[in-house]
Amino acid sequence: MQYQAWFRCTSGEHGQWSLEEVLYRCPTCDGLLEVAHDLNALRARSPSAWMRLFDDRYKRTTWPYGSGVWGKKEWVAPQLDDDNIVSLDEGGTNLFWANRYGKSIGIEDLWIKLCGNSHTGSFKDLGMTVLVSVVKQMIAHGKPIQAVACASTGDTSASLAAYCAVAGIRSVVLLPRGGVSTAQLVQPLANGSLVLALDTDFDGCMAIVQLLAKEPGIYLANSMNSLRLEGQKTIAMEMVQQFDWEVPDWVVIPGGNLGNVSALGAGFLMLYELGLIRTLPRIAVAQAERANPLYQAFMRGFDQLEPIFARPTLATAIKIGNPVSYSRAVRTLQRFDGVVEQATEAELAEAAARADLTGMFNDPHTGVALAVLEKLAHNGTIQPGQRTVVLSTANGLKFTDFKVKYHERALGELGISSEYANRPVDLPADLDAVKRAVESSLLTPAPRTAR
To answer: How many domains, in total, are found in the chain?
Structure first.
């Protein structure tokens, strides 16, 4: 069976184009594009047969199907030659049962999808494998692409740099100067990218990279390029697969540029339309209160996007005031009976620390999602018996500066009291001193995780 996928305008009215076209917006209406699939061809295989195929491939070694993305190649980019696929075994990340933390907030069936357990430490790998693979095939077919470029708050640049390094393709990343963690900055440097630190925020970098991508030979890698979303949609497919093809009741997603919201929606809808699932989850988008244009629009009934100047936030990866994928995200939220909530700096930091005490190691963006989860559980939006998945977008080890400052109580200027701060105890190399410290600790009540 020959499966097909192509670009089309999200309006569905203005034609279709090859995935190998250098095209990001509809030439007629200037709307963003999406990847469409020949669903009739895909329906020739039964839902149970697709499940068996995907389960047989999952985390195996036959190239390239062991990848969490390329194990579902027919649903992602079926026309790609296997030799052109650039994969770092992305996906297949842990669905962590957060039982102890969940009990503390009244949601016992709580799971954290640890997308940061990936090659470069974030969910961006899932989309970048698709985009860079398509670029490699375009180059093989004679397209004059000299470099791939992105604007980034850190994680996108790391992922682009790694995948381009594997493929032998030049990469260019534009970062807001001083706006990413040290760990995030060093990743594209190590992988050989041209790193341009601009005296602006992410929205400023995004405006410039879109102009740069109009130059001959420069290909755009940001999520307005819907190839990225094709890889990211497999997060939804994978979590359903990990639940033995059952659908959670809720998915909570940190939201910045909002590509991930529509990507997961697309994944769930594809499962639904091809008969592998019979219900859809509800989606909650979590925004930092200092970068909350979607939340503000939600409170106005999604009348329109009013871009804002995003203020400094610990959740640097979602510090975006003018999200490119706003219209896609709104469409997804309306289809999935979704809600949007926000979290202050204190709420996100304390929520991350509370969850850390139950075995996690949360980045600040996951902290935003956890703070929103707690609010939605407290106000009854998410019911105690509902299976809920929180999307953890990055590895906490990329944000150790945030963790250190929290435990040093150095975030007071943000109104953060560091309720769960834990400092090392300096002692002489003396057994009696160590015994006294241990005994004192055992007499002290353990920190409570519930609010």
So the answer is: 1
